[in-house]
Design the sequence.
């Protein structure tokens, strides 16, 4: 069987499509694959500020065109960064598998060593993510945050070129998949030494670091293949995270960090939510791993116990 994969055209998206391709070819049912690049609205509208996207554009900024290609049978599978997929179900489509998750941690890429605490007072940090921006302000109220768009190499170049910027925030998963993993937390880029530090105090976006394979609900052959390559632990974790996101009603313009991790037979689910009124809700719960949806519901009730 030949599988046609649909993907965005960025270097990171293509790297993820290659990971999906290798996983599919590991199945005895897949003889060949074809990767088809599909441009999304988010790729074409580089003028759009992502923290305004939920107000100005419908959800699915980076996914809608891929889903349309699935529905029209132009492709058999859509390869997504799971964090880009809205939680609302799309009629006739479903997430069929999640590949083994890369480390979902955010990293600070800075011109000075020492991480977030070592940045001078009033440092300017660039990020396109409201979630990251709010958590940085929460940890470093003195810091200034500005917007940045573009793929990972473009953002790194902007950091090097812009003298006012002290740092940017990226996902470690993206750096690894682009073969930009630093040596001893130091990355040489455009003849400049940049310093990479894990932001362990920031909670990632729901599904960050996970590659999702989306397919048609009634495509039994593809479902059978995906069942062989789905990673069950990654699946349980991202399902819990996305359920919490759904309960809160989070979209592109709602700053929410949520992360599930598994220890033995238990799941620890932690979240932080920044409301428009300035309120911050946060907490964590520990439940059996198979109670993934319950974990999201219990955490939601606990952190909103006084307000909802």
Sequence:
């Amino acid at each position: 069987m030949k599988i046609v994969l649909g993907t965005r055209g960025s270097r990171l998206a293509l790297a993820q499509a290659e990971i999906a391709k290798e996983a599919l070819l590991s199945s005895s049912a897949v003889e060949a694959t074809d990767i088809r690049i599909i441009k999304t609205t988010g790729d074409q509208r580089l003028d759009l500020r992502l923290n305004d996207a939920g107000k100005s554009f419908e959800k699915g900024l980076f996914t809608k065109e891929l889903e349309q290609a699935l529905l029209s049978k132009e492709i058999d599978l859509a390869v997504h960064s799971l964090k880009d997929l809205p939680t609302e179900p799309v009629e006739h489509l479903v997430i069929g598998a999640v590949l083994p998750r890369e480390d979902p941690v955010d990293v600070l890429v800075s011109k000075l060593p020492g991480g977030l605490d070592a940045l001078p007072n009033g440092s300017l940090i660039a990020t396109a993510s409201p979630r990251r921006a709010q958590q940085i302000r929460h940890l470093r109220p003195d810091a200034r945050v500005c917007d940045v768009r573009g793929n990972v190499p473009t953002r790194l170049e902007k950091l090097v070129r812009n003298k006012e910027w002290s740092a940017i925030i990226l996902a470690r998963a993206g750096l690894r998949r682009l073969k930009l993993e630093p040596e001893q937390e130091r990355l040489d880029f455009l003849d400049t030494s940049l310093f990479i530090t894990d932001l362990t105090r920031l909670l990632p976006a729901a599904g960050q670091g996970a590659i999702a394979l989306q397919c048609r609900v009634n495509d039994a052959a593809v479902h059978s293949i995906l069942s062989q390559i789905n990673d069950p632990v990654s699946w349980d974790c991202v399902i819990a995270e996305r359920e919490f996101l759904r309960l809160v009603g989070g979209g592109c313009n709602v700053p929410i960090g949520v992360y599930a991790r598994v220890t033995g037979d238990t799941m620890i689910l932690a979240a932080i939510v920044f409301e428009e009124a300035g309120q911050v809700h946060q907490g964590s719960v520990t439940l059996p791993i198979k109670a993934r949806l319950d974990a999201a519901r219990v955490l939601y009730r606990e952190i909103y116990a006084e307000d909802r």
